[in-house]
Amino acid sequence: MRSTQSRRVRVVIEASDPITHASVLSRLEAGDEFTVLSPSDCAEADVVVLAPDRLDADVLFAMRRSASENRKPVVLVIDHISESELLAAVECHAVAIVPRQAATTSRLSRCVSDAAAGGGVMPPDVLEQLLRHVEHVQREMPSPCRNPTAELTSRDTDILRMLARGLDTAQIADELCYTVPTVKNLISSLLVRLTLRNRSQAVAYAIQTGAI
Hints:
alpha/beta, Rossmann fold, Arc Repressor Mutant, subunit A, 2 domains, five-stranded parallel sheet, 10 helices, 5 strands, 52% helix, globular, disordered N terminus
């Protein structure tokens, strides 16, 4: 039988101040689901919980660097986030956003567990911002790619789902057990076949046609 320790989700907490860090830590340590690691051990973590005062340029720079180096899902604990900040955060693997005042032990624990399992949780207002962005991308798509009858293989659908989850090329390669150049070629071929210009349009197409 596996030990309780081996089943725990490994978490790194990055907070704007010691009080916020202690608050998040106390919630995650309330049960026996998580093991909290030092930020220096981020490469070993399953999830990063980030709790900044605001998503300024310095925080986004750190998120981009972390996304590039460690590619860990991020649970963002923050009260206010603009649409541009939201899109930047999603690009940096933010899969869940929790308002600080709503970050109860049960809610934060659920978000971290979902993130570790490959899921995500977004508040309704955040989802509305994302949907507005998708609608904008859809309006910008050339008309041929609006055809829902375009044939998609199961591999195409898998790739679209992973793009929608915010996975980068290397992560998709890991999931499919392909090389990074192979995945780049597959995505490029998919975009050409569907007459799409970029990955954002591919995700919008998949949502619009019900492919994912």
